[in-house]
Amino acid sequence: MSVMSEAVALVSLGCAKNLVDSEVMAGLLTAAGYRMTSFPGDADVIVVNTCAFIGEAQQEAVDTILDLAKHKEAGRCRALVVTGCLAQRFASELLAEIPEIDAVVGTGDFPLIADVVRRALSGERVRLVGTPCYLYDENAPRILSTPPYVAYVKIAEGCSNQCSYCVIPDLRGPYRSRPMESIIAEVRKLARGGAKELILIAQDTTRYGEDIYGHPSLARLLREVCKVDGPRWVRVLYMYPTRVTGELIEVMASEPKICKYVDLPLQHADDDILRAMNRRGTSDDAREIIARFRQAMPDVTIRSTFIVGFPGETDEKFGRLLDFLKEVRLDRVGVFAYSPQPGTPAARLHGRVPARVKERRRREAMEVQKTISREKNEARVGKVFDVLIEGRSEESDLVTVGRSQAEAPEIDGLIYIGNEHPAPGEFRRVRIVDAGDYDLVGETLAPGAGEAGDARVP
Ligand code: SF4
């Protein structure tokens, strides 16, 4: 059977950085003549691009692999390929314990995915897991999995921050920035493809350029990205608190295209815990950086993530985190229960917190944040925002959903609109008429309406 008729289904798990890898793999497989399908049941080959950040993600990856393996018995699937962080970390275990797997490919080896698929289809069992050093560029064939008006741009790969609980530096290698020319060339390509919102991602975007230009260069990169015609919004995710510079804040505040949205994982607010996590900066540093963002951009939306149940976290230390949440009143918060990762320094720490206590603390922190999130949403009622239309809601065809600059895709709430159903990718001026814990309800305004006096119209 020739390559031309063979179909590949690619299932992408984990973060947006992994999603970009999946999109590059889809481009490489298509360039090699394979046909991509969204239906694993119709595929000759199934590729699962996995995550292994924490225990839950690892379990989800294994469950997904086992579930898709059923297509080898019941379906037409002849090769099951596992890529991504779980493959990088547990290649031998996967091959030993899941006989249905035909190939495992590391986080730096997926550029050879087409050859791996060819070998797996010819009956070879492939293990291709090297030292992660790959970094895609603008020439990598990439098939977007997001709607054409939204695109992630990976500006760097790997991480060198060495947080004591994290396996990513081992799975993705040391931090390596893409040359600015390569990023701008890709941004131009995405703009020609209709991208309206560009989302710059890396494990730590604020470290961009330190390795290749000798100094933080995210601010300069943002100015260059904003010069490219077409995209209307430029969003930055995954900032490291102590690496935020005055220049970065200034460019975010002064460039109209840059979303007034800050994603700033803080992880905890007790200084002893932050030290044990090997996180640079203290809770006071976090307060100061939040205040500087709010001073420069009064309407900025700040998202953060926290880990509860870290070894040594007493009720008192957890209490400091709750007090911090109530004090700084962030707009968006994700809270994760600590998941010990064998081989990390944190996994050898004493003072383990029982799972039920971790879960209770995670719920308690989310309850505190839910109240803050609702109050912040209620304060947006009556205000007008530019909203990027995403299409009909999954819940009902009678409702359209969209996002303002204050909502990042996939991780934040949505704005529900019932009075008009513009096409996906269009922008509308929307007045908020109601608020929920995480979502909002709005009405589109006639073109030009809602201009006067509405400071929040970007
Ligand atoms: S910044 Fe820390 S938590 Fe994030 S990827 Fe790097 S080492 Fe892991």
What can you see in these coordinates?
There is one protein chain. 34% of the residues lie in helices and 20% in strands. With 458 residues, the chain is of the alpha/beta class. The chain folds into 3 domains: 3-128, Methylthiotransferase, N-terminal domain (Rossmann fold, 3-Layer(aba) Sandwich), CATH 3.40.50.12160; 150-378, Alpha-Beta Horseshoe (pyruvate-formate lyase- activating enzyme), CATH 3.80.30.20; 384-444, OB fold (Dihydrolipoamide Acetyltransferase, E2P) (Beta Barrel). The protein has a 6-stranded parallel sheet, sandwiched between helices. It has a 5-stranded mixed beta barrel with strand order 15-16-17-19-18. A 3-stranded parallel sheet has the order 7-10-11. α3 (85-97) links the parallel β4 (79-84) and β5. Bound molecules: iron/sulfur cluster.
Write the layout of secondary structure elements.
Elements (H helix, E strand, L loop, with lengths): L6 E6 L3 H16 L3 E3 L7 E6 L4 H20 L4 E6 H13 L5 E3 L7 H9 L4 E3 L21 E5 L1 E2 L10 H5 L3 E2 L2 H13 L4 E5 L8 H4 L4 H9 L6 E4 L9 H9 L6 E3 L7 H6 L6 H14 L4 E8 L6 H14 L3 E6 L17 H24 L5 E9 L7 E4 L11 E3 L9 E9 L4 E5 L14
Parallel strand pairs: 1-2, 1-3, 3-4, 4-5, 5-6, 7-10, 10-11, 12-13, 13-14, 17-19
Antiparallel strand pairs: 8-9, 15-16, 15-18, 16-17, 18-19
Helix pairs in contact: 8-9, 12-13
The structure holds iron/sulfur cluster (SF4).
The site of iron/sulfur cluster has 9 residues, from helix 5.
